[in-house]
Amino acid sequence: MTKNAVMVTGAASGIGYSCARDLLRDGVSVVAADIGNIPIALMEAGNCLAQTFDISSLDACKSAVSEVCDKFGGLSALIHLAGIHQTKTWEEVDADDFARVMAVNVTGSFLIAKAAAETMRETDGAIVLTASGGVELGGVVGDGRGGPAYTSSKAAIRGLTRSLARSLGKFNIRVNAVSPGATDTPMIGTYDNAARGGAVNRTPLGRIALPEDISDVARFLISDESRFITGQIIPVNGGSAFG
What we know:
Layout: E1 5-9, H1 14-25, E2 30-34, H2 40-43, E3 48-52, H3 58-72, E4 75-80, H4 95-120, E5 125-130, H5 134-137, H6 148-168, E6 173-180, H7 193-201, H8 211-221, E7 233-236
Parallel strand pairs: 1-2, 1-4, 2-3, 4-5, 5-6, 6-7
Helix pairs in contact: 1-8, 3-4, 4-6
């Protein structure tokens, strides 16, 4: 699949953990990155480098990518799944709340993609960012569902993905994004039964996504099988929204 290592951010849990685990299972060298601790299970599963850093810091992103190149000789792909959720309604959210979400989810996505792309310029590569099906639905409420700050940040990822795809195509670097619907991860841990039921009822396939449903698509987007796909936002939501 890849020549060098694949960096997976958000690898401490949820979709990121699933993605890192399955890449290691396939024999790929993995950089498992998160702001929290990386599970021991990943460290014991194969050739895995654990990194803990703040994605919204340019220096931290550059340092992390530099360490990858020193250890593995280069970076073949970035699957950026890290981010923060924000469930405050429009009445509750303030400027500081909004700025923090944008700093992590948007600026952080740009900074880690920029650091990765700079090392891929001579070797090709693939970058996968993370949007959200909430952009199609319009997140407005709490109880685990993304409010206006979160939804706005994920809408920005759509534009960022397409801008980077056009900018980096000349280096044969592909940039795409996965756009998950409701997924059984800690992010929806505060869903009550009504919220879960609503997510299931609006999904033609009749269930909430498993982390693997999303991470399998992310792994496809860095593979040779997707070699002519770039600038695309891929919905993985069981049909809950037809964006």
